[in-house]
Amino acid sequence: MKKMYDAVADEYIKYRNDLPEMLLPGLETRGIDFSGAKVADFGAGPGFLSEQLSARGAIVDAVEPSGEFYSHAVEMFKDNNKVNFNLSYGEKSGLPVKTFDIVISLRSWDWFDRREVLEEVQRILKPDGYLIIADFGFTDSSETVKESVKVIRKCAKKYKVKSKIHKQETDGLITGFPLEWIEEWQEYRFDIQDLYKRSYKMEFTHEGWIDHLSPLSSLVPFKPKHRRKTLKKISEHLKDKYEDDVYRIGHEMNVAILRNRS
Would you state the torsion angle of the CA atoms of residues 6, 166, 53, 62, taken in this order, to the nearest 10 degrees? Predict the structure, then answer.
């Protein structure tokens, strides 16, 4: 997993604590019991999900390679004995063998070397334990999103930015997940218990939308000065194009619940 978010850690912490309210309740209704469970949170970021898991009774080992996120989390969880933060990579977590009931990855699976992280999950997960992979974010159903992405792509080309995300060409999607991901899960003997998605909307002011974009994964590889210039161009473009400065943005949450059969 790339340690890319150090450059935008402050913005991420400030503007991206936006976990869908239905995420954990939806997992619980599908039989995932967090109370007393040992959970590894891979790609934990600053600990937003870890905090919610611990509030539901989970004992959490958070794994995050960003030093900036780690520093924030150490302070955030200094009085929370249910969360232990580890400055390490999902591919080499250093966590003990066959110890965890659940491994969860939220908004981070496409940053991993997926085969390496699957081997690591197999190593630390108990037999019949769960691997939960979830993602959420805005969709391109909104014209605001389309226009914003158009500017980002134009600037990426201008500044010769290459994405650091581990993505491959895909033959298609199943419930929001690339087919090759599903094939990899099956290859590593993870049975699919459930795949589901939910749609929802979020409302942003103009300034709030620009702030929300600032730590966007497609902007993370930009040099800081180029990222600032790109956000300014997006802001100017949207102001020129739309009179209304309140945007209702469609979002989608995708969740895979997998069972370890190794």
Answer: -60
